[in-house]
Amino acid sequence: MATETQRPWGLRESYLFNRIVIAEIQRAAREGVYDIRGFGAKRRVPHFDDLLFLGASVSRYPLEGYRERCATDVVLGTRFATKPLELKIPITIAGMSFGALSAPAKEALGRGASEVGTSTTTGDGGMTNEEREHSKTLVYQLLPSRYGMNPDDLRRADAIEVVVGQGAKPGGGGILLGHKISDRVAEMRDLPKGIDQRSASRHPDWTGPDDLEIKIHELREITDWEKPIFVKVGATRTYYDVQLAVKAGADAIVVDGMQGGTAATQDVFIEHVGIPTLPATRLAVDALQELGMHRQVQLIVSGGIRTGADVAKALALGADAVSIGTAALVAMGDNSPEYEEQYRKIGSSAGFYDDYQAGRDPVGISTQDDELAARFDPVLGGRKVANYLRVLTLETQTLARACGKSHVHNLEPEDLVALTVEAAAMARVPLAGTDWIPGWNGS
Amino acid sequence: MAVRVREEAEVELVDLETTSLRELNQRLHDLARAPGPAAWRVVNPNGAHAVACGMDAEIEVEIEGHVGYYCAGMNKRATVRVHGNAGPGIAENMMSGLVVVDGSASQSAGATGRGGLLVIRGDASARCGISMKGIDIVVGGSVGHMSAFMAQTGCLVVCGDAGEALGDSIYEARLYVRGRVAGLGADCVEKEMRAEHAAQLGALLEAAGVEADPADFRRYGSARQLYNFKIDNAGAY
Fold this sequence. Notes:
Chain A has 15 helices and 16 strands. By secondary structure, chain A is an alpha/beta fold.
């Protein structure tokens, strides 16, 4: 096969039918099933990369980087819960199921989050003892499947997250393919081993915002009004979803943009449904501000958060906290070049691996294979997660200090400009070097 | 079935016109940690939601009147009797115990229940037993469409008729229907009623206090053709 350098200049690749498209058409014809994969959207969409901070200069003065404090604490669930979450940093670990991830990987996430004083989250499959034991602050998800759901876990959780949707697949259910259904996963989900486990796209006992309000009320009654109740939505009609979630009584709202990761979803869904995290953040803040509930109902943003810059920009747009999923897996070693040889053996490569659904993860994270899972050291993995979270926090503080802020929550849209017209319109901040916000005030 | 008649003095009376739902549920929850009255009578529920939800104690709660959504939700060990009708999600995600509705129940009765017995003496609306995970449900009347949708384990007994798409995408749950079935959902088929099934059904009817002959019922369950994705079944999805 000709390499890039060997290929004759006269050969022109089609934009529409490029090699990726050709490979997918031929795979579909060969296998007769749509492409299910993990990871998140791989297409380029407007993101926080398209924003820049305006650091302090003459008209603003910065905080001294190593001497003046820049606080990072956040409290989630202050609206109704008698025991809101008090976190040291505004970066949480997103919901990822035991089933999708190995037990050691879930343990590592709990260890890492606990070490730095933040929360981690269960997923579609219930709460494991390892996860609870190693997570100082654990958010328990209530999903349409209700796999493993029970009132004891509701009561031993620190918060409850009603999952309406996920950024990778808003409007879609889930699937855990049969080869990841070990005896333990099967038992937790009350299903036979080895069959594809489908998760419904709608909750079984409520539909619509009026019902959601009653459901949240029930959860509060069962847990004696102690636990903060989050509502998680995939980013689509974000403005309306956020307002309806507030009306339904949520303490906090999680908005997951289309770049949000998944363990197993159709590629067509990942790449073609939902809106990016950038406009979703703006819309969510608009919705909260219009209701007078900004900072009263906390906003947690997820989907494509990788760096402290992403964190800082999300906070500047008005989020109270962010959540990370894929980045935490990468921090633990997912897609590491260290495993290149083994990725090659399963037809992938470090930096490209997205077959979380297949359960053959050589790193031992997205698998239920005992031998593979045993490769993953939860103590070391936890340490890596903690390190990574600390770096994100330091980066966020660095940017906040540069903007003269003594708390990361003091970052504001006024600190930002956009590099592209699209990002300026979506984030509603001026295009760099201008005072132009496309689509705003008639412009 | 022997029924013990309690003296009035032994029964804790709670009037929801004068006592808040929060106070009632808190007192019931406290019984998981400290002893207290074993028999409760709740009057004037007036369609309140989440009545007697989240209990974890071997007590009996009699509710005189109609209840709204999620009565006895996530119940563990307790016996709840609703002398009236029930709104959506009665005994949702029940873990154990017994819930009896004298009247009819709205949608999603027993949804995702993982154990215990739910008895509805009247009819149940749509999605009865949706995603059930081990609960047993006995309905004296009929059930609405999409009942036992994605039902995983446990038994749904319907003494009347069943609506459209019964047992759609069913897993290992067992469905017993005495009357007419308007239609079966994807991957749900009629199955042979063997002696073991008749015995199981007979025991459920007896536990529910329903007089019916197991021989009059038909059994339905999964054809297990959709357990693993096959492109040739695409039309069924």
